[in-house]
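Course exercise 7: structure representation. Students receive a sequence record and must write out the corresponding structure in token form. The form below is the worked example handed out in class, using 30S ribosomal protein S3 (70 residues). Read each field label carefully; the graders check that inputs and outputs are placed in the correct fields and that the protein name is recorded exactly as given.

STUDENT ID: A-19
EXERCISE PROTEIN: 30S ribosomal protein S3
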Amino acid sequence: MGQKTNPIGNRLGIIRGWESNWYGGNDYGDKLAEDDKIRKYIHARLSKASVSRVIIERTLKLVTVTITTA
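STUDENT ANSWER:
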């Protein structure tokens, strides 16, 4: 009998990429909470725009948010 796996985690690196691309360092928790706030805000503001993915990439001074719609 097989084990059930998370389909997103199973496909990472093969079919899909990561939803967030950054290195946390000491303030990992703060950045993770900020990413969650950004995603919730975008989904709330664009609820009727059928947003399928929100990709967040960070450098030291720049945050890039890519919104993919269906």
